[in-house]
Amino acid sequence: MRSIVIVGSGIAGLSAALTAAQKGARVILVDRAPDGEHGGNTRYTEAYLRMKSLDEVADDFVDHFMANAGGYTDPGIEQEMVRDHDGWSALARSQSAVDPELLGSFVENAGLTLRWLEQAGLTFDFLPTAFITTTTTRLLPVGGGLAMVETLTEACKAAGVEFRFETTARALITHDGRVTGIRTTKGDLEADAVILACGGFEGNPEMLARYIGAAAINLRPVARGGHYNKGEGIRMALDIGAAPNGDFGSYHAEPIDPRSGCAEPAIFTFPYGILVNKDGDRFTDEAPGTVDAHYESVTRRIFQQRDGIAWLITDAGLDDVPNWRKGSRTDQPALVADTLPGLAGMIGLPAGRFAETVERFNAACRAGDFRPLETDGLSTEDLWPPKSNWARPLTVAPFRAWPIISANVFTFGGLKIDRHARVLDLDGNPIPGLYTAGETVGIYYRTYTGSTSVLRGAVFGRLAALHCAGAVA
C-alpha cells in the first residue's frame, strides 16, 4: 500500500485525498487550521467554475489563458512549446509560462473531475452570480465552496483518510534526490509521495512585501481562509530546487469594502458611478466593459492609489440598475448625503478638488440610451481618464459613497508542474515523490482567468493523486 501525505484541506487537498484513498493508498492530510475552520479559501468562496456545461469548459477558457500566459517569452522557446512535449529542451520545460501541455491537461480533465465530484455527492447548476454584466459562462456547486469542503471531508473520513489538524508542514524530507516525507510541527511523516496543496502566500506579510512590494501592507486576504496560507509549501519546494512559475509579483485582485469583516465583501457596482482617490481625483476608466471581465484591472488601479483606497460615488441614478444590490456584497451601509459637498465632508475628501472632478465628469457626459445590463457605449467625451460605458452625470440626491480596497484573493506565484501535477525542478524534470495542486501551483500571469482557481485545485489535486497512487503511468 502506497503512503501519501497531503498538506492542505481546500478543494485541491481534499480532491487529492479522496482520490488517493479510493485508489487504495494510505493517506494522511495535515492542515494548520483547526477542524471546522479548515478548507482554506475554498471554505469561503462561492466557487465559480468557468464551464459552459458540466462536461465542457467555457468557449473563452483557452484563449484567455494563452493571452496571459507569461511575459515576453523568447520566440525560439515559444516555437519549441508548440511541438511535441517529448522534444522540449530543459529551458522550455522549466520556462516560467503557461505551457500548452499543461493547459491541455487542465481542459481535458475539467469535465471528468466535475463528474467525479458529482459522484462524491456534490451538485452543480448555473446559479445567479454577483456580476451584473458578464461575458462568459459560469457553473457553481450548489452550496458553494463550503459544500465542497464539508462533502469531501466526510467522504475522505469514510474512505479512511487520517486528518491531522492544527499541524503545520515546515520542510520536505529528501533522500538521494527523492522526497520521502515531510517535517511538521508535530513530528516527521514518512511517505512514498507528498502532495503540497497548502495555498499561496497571501497570509504572509514578509513574502508579500518581498514579491509584491511595500504597498502590500494595504492588501488583505479576501476571506478568513487566506490568512492560513503563509507560503511554506512554495518555499520548501523552492528550497530543494523546484522551478518557480506564475507571476510572483502579482495576485488575484478583487474590490472589497474594508469596513466589512464578512467573507468576500465585494463591491461590483463601481461601473455605475465614479471612483475617486483620497485626493478627490478620478484615476481610471470605471467601466471599460462588463464587470466580470474588468473588475480585476480596475481594482489594481485602486491598489496603486495613495494608501491603496478609493471611493465609489453614485447618485440616485444607481437605482435605475435592476437588482444592483446583488453586486454590493458588503454588510456595511453606504455613506449617504443630500449634497456632494456634504458627502465629501463625510468621507474626508478635499471639497474643492472633489467638486472640480465631478463638474468635469458631468460636463463630459453625453445624451444617450442608458442600458445597465449590457455595455451601452454611453461614454464621456474629451475627458481623461474616460468612462467607456454607463456614463451619466451625478446630479440627483441621494449621493452615496462606499470605500473600496483591493483584496488579495490568492497570489499568482507558485511551483511549476507537468500534466500529472508533478513538481518540476529547474531543469524541467520531475522531482521524484513531489506533487502540488491548487494555489501552490503557479499558473496565472498579468490577469486572472476568472472562475478557474477552484477548478484548478480540483483537477490537479485529482491528477496528482491518480499519478502518485499508481493509477496513471
What topology emerges from the helices and strands here?
Elements: E1 3-7, H1 11-22, E2 26-31, H2 61-67, H3 75-80, H4 90-94, H5 100-119, E3 124-125, E4 140-141, H6 144-158, E5 162-165, E6 169-175, E7 178-184, E8 187-190, E9 193-196, H7 205-211, E10 220-221, H8 232-239, E11 244-245, E12 251-256, E13 274-276, H9 291-303, E14 309-314, E15 335-337, H10 340-347, H11 351-364, E16 399-411, E17 414-415, E18 422-424, E19 430-436, H12 453-468
Parallel strand pairs: 1-2, 1-9, 2-5, 9-19, 10-16
Antiparallel strand pairs: 3-4, 6-7, 7-8, 11-17, 12-16, 13-14, 14-16, 15-16, 18-19
Helix pairs in contact: 1-6, 1-12, 5-12, 10-11
Give an overview in words.
This protein is α/β, with parallel strands linked by helices. α1 runs parallel beside α12 (453-468) and α10 crosses α11 (351-364). It folds into two domains: 3-250 and 412-468, FAD/NAD(P)-binding domain; 254-407, Alpha-Beta Complex (Flavocytochrome C3, Chain A, domain 1), CATH 3.90.700.10. It is elongated. The model has no long low-confidence stretch (mean pLDDT 96). It starts with a strand and ends in a 5-residue tail after the last helix. It has helices spanning 11-22, 61-67, 75-80, 90-94, 100-119, 144-158, 205-211, 232-239, 291-303, 340-347, 351-364, 453-468, and strands at 3-7, 26-31, 124-125, 140-141, 162-165, 169-175, 178-184, 187-190, 193-196, 220-221, 244-245, 251-256, 274-276, 309-314, 335-337, 399-411, 414-415, 422-424, 430-436. The strands form five sheets. It has a six-stranded mixed beta sheet with strand order 5-2-1-9-19-18, with helices on both faces. It has twelve helices and 19 strands.
